[in-house]
Amino acid sequence: xxxxxxxxxxxxxxxxxxxxxxxxxxxxxxxxxxxxxxxxxxxxxxxxxxxxxxxxxxxxxxxxxxxxxxxxxxxxxxxxxxxxxxxxxxxxxxxxxxxxxxxxxxxxxxxxxxxxxxxxxxxxxxxxxxxxxxxxxxxxxxxxxxxxxxxxxxxxxxxxxxxxxxxxxxxxxxxxxxxxxxxxxxxxxxxxxxxxxxxxxxxxxxxxxxxxxxxxxxxxxxxxxxxxxxxxxxxxxxxxxxxxxxxxxxxxx
Length: 253
Known about the structure:
By secondary structure, the chain is mostly helical. It has one domain (35-252). The protein is built from nine helices and no strands. The longest helix has 38 residues, at 215-252. The radius of gyration is 24 Å and the shape is globular.
């Protein structure tokens, strides 16, 4: 008599979407070593805080240095080639509209790739930058330099700190942070870092050259951008790292 053995058919398991880790990702360095973020926060915050106190108290030495440098740069700009002036004017857009465009592209990319940590790093840092700048600049309400003959236009919004420089540090600092680990050699890592630093310095120079800011405005933007970027990027990475560790412990239990 022939018997038929029944074979168990395992149900088809739905395929899980595997995250692609080959894209533009945060290296997690600040999450693993938050002391780096703390040091950057203290350095940037110290620079901004010192300048803020000097501006608020109308420190005569700072005012003298600011005015002298602003006047000297304005004189140079008036006698510069049009291409140099145009390069400085382009810095206005490179420090604002282009940064907004980069931010939108990054957020859409991170959403598509499901890179939630990186998405929140950009959204919180860059979104918070606009709110912080509005609050801080209106609190100090520092007038911008005024010249009889302007290079481009006369801005009326408060000048301390420089919002363009603030955003530039957040944007190009973040780009360097996620791109450098993708470089295969130290040479190219150095190139990426150098390019990011040059762009950050270029925006600061451009804002000074066309007469939109005093030097202390620009330096304060560097300090505030470093402090805020270090705080947000480190905090988001640290929280993300802790959540992953917690999930791993639960899965092993």
